[in-house]
Amino acid sequence: MAYSLGVDLVGACKAFVSVSERGSFTLGAAAARIPQPVASRRIAALERHLGGRLFDRSTRRATLTPFGREMLASAKRLVELAEAMEHDAERARLTPIRFAVPDTCPTRDLAFLDAEARRQGLHLDFVPAAPARRAELLAFGQVRAALVAVPADDGYWRVPLGLASAAPPRVETVHLETLRAGRADPVVRRRVWLQPEDDVPHIRDRLFRIRDAVGLQPAQVAVAPALTSAVADVLGSADLLLCSPAQAEELGLHWRPIGGVRLVRGFDVSAGTGEDAERVRLPLTEEIARCLGVPADSATPADQGEAQ
After folding, report:
1. CA–CA separation, 62 vs 55, rounded Å?
2. pTM score
3. Which of 85, 102, 116, 201 is 20 to 30 Å from 158 at the Cα level?
4. Which domains, from first to last, does the chain contain?
């Protein structure tokens, strides 16, 4: 028998089972949490759909007809399957999305992101990692989504980078050529440290080319094994850290832009499915921007850095 689009088969079967168990349309409707007229209409529609009477309406009690007794077991199975499906759907909605994020994201900002995600009906399980590790986790299915590092032009979020020092700089812009050692003291060479988050080709290789072009020694621009060690070197010397303004503020460093060049971190959400990517990206745009250190005066993620 073909299923009729005019019949709520599950709802009608729930009403049928509830009324049959209680022997009353009134009590059955109350147990099913629907008005009695609604229960009567659903059962009548089910009878038309199945082609036979389910209840003998000549008595005061809701008594099953022989046809109704034959159909009751099937109706119960359908109701049980529907309830199991609803339970599984609820469990699936509550299953956390494992989400790889930069390990530079501040804990407080991740907490705000988590709280907003919960308000949106999402549950996130953060996995902090460096760029290469985030891509690897996603590729091998160990996370469902990741904030991946991409070239600035491809970034949904864009974060400008500059150089930060322990002492307040005396200039508004730091030019890399000023880091060349002088003849008077050729041994002392200030260094620029890249943290693991910036150990990606579109940032690292470009900065290395600039290093070579302005005549710095190879060791003067280097990738640190960890952010902690890079900050320690900066705090104990005149070295500089490549970072965002927000990160410099968090670390208590003094940030300045780099003269003659604009380096930008680009980020986007990548996931196993486009649906997972959109579920994370669209409702959580502002909270993710805060985690990444996107400047507060940026109009939108898509507009950030258009002038580059």
Report:
1. 6
2. 0.70
3. 116
4. 9-93 (1.10.10.10), 109-308 (3.40.190.290)
